[in-house]
Amino acid sequence: MKLGRGFTLVELLLALGLMSMLLALAYGGLRASTRAADKGQAILEDSSRIRMAHQFVRKQLNQMIPIAYLEDPDTGERVVFEGSSKIIRFVAPMPGYLGFGGPQVQELAVVPGDEGEMLVLSHALLQGFEEQNLYFRDPIVLLEKVGNAEFSFLGRDETGELTGWTNQWDLPDVLPESVSLDVEFADEVYIQWPLLTASVRVDPAALQGLESNMGIREDYSTTIRDMINKRRQQN
């Protein structure tokens, strides 16, 4: 009986080499597709997180209320808004899922993080407010992997004309006309921060009308507090 011819060593080596090349190509393609899928998932997550943070910050800034949260007992000076390039503090209603409702003192701050800077939110009840109350609990992280972020403010001068944008707010007893937040992310974030410029929706003219019709003082904080107290008395 005649035996069939087998494979030579050279043929086996060639076959193994070709198989190795095919496996390497297949592995490279699989790895590339996995990286693309991971990158796509990261982009989706970043996009969702940035969109939610953008909407939240805009809503809170739009809802700022000119109520004083600090008052100097000696001079009577009141603070309704504080702002610099890295931190702002104001009074606004909180969403129900983050607080107990009603006006709360809120602080948005750009702070160092593990991967660049972070935008964080701290808040405390307006009633009985003290500065340390803002830091009883850990802040809520709104944005991470921030390369640089700055607040800027638009106000009016003594004649009522709009001033230029500035990174420092020097009128703590007055709300700015608008607040802007510019954010640049680190290189690994592929989504850009949409332009955010929020205008305060409180109409001073409406409060002045209440003053003339109801005998309420022009001060925003006093006006709103008196309105709340009057409603409580009626109830």
Could you describe the 3D structure shown?
There is one protein chain. The chain is an alpha+beta fold. The chain has a domain at 52-214. The protein is built from three helices and nine strands. It has helices at 9-62, 204-214, 220-234, and strands at residues 70-71, 78-79, 82-83, 87-93, 103-113, 116-125, 140-154, 178-185, 196-199. Strand 1 and strand 2 (78-79) form a beta hairpin.
Question: How much strand content do the residues show?
Answer: 25-35%
Number of helices: 3
- The SS-based structural class is alpha+beta
Order of helices and strands: HEEEEEEEEEHH
Total number of beta strands: 9
Strand order of the largest sheet: 3-4-5-6-7-8-9
Helical residues, percent: 25-40%
Radius of gyration: 29 Å
Mean pLDDT: 79
What gap, in angstroms, lies between the N and C termini? 113 Å
What can be said about the biggest beta sheet? 7 strands, antiparallel
**How would the global form be characterised?**
elongated
User: What low-confidence regions span 5 or more consecutive residues with pLDDT below 50?
Assistant: 203-221
What's this model, at a glance?
Helices cover about 35% and strands about 25% of the residues. With about 240 residues, it is α+β, with helices and mostly antiparallel strands.
Write the topology of this structure:
Elements: H1 9-62, E1 70-71, E2 78-79, E3 82-83, E4 87-93, E5 103-113, E6 116-125, E7 140-154, E8 178-185, E9 196-199, H2 204-214, H3 220-234
Antiparallel strand pairs: 1-2, 3-4, 4-5, 5-6, 6-7, 7-8, 8-9
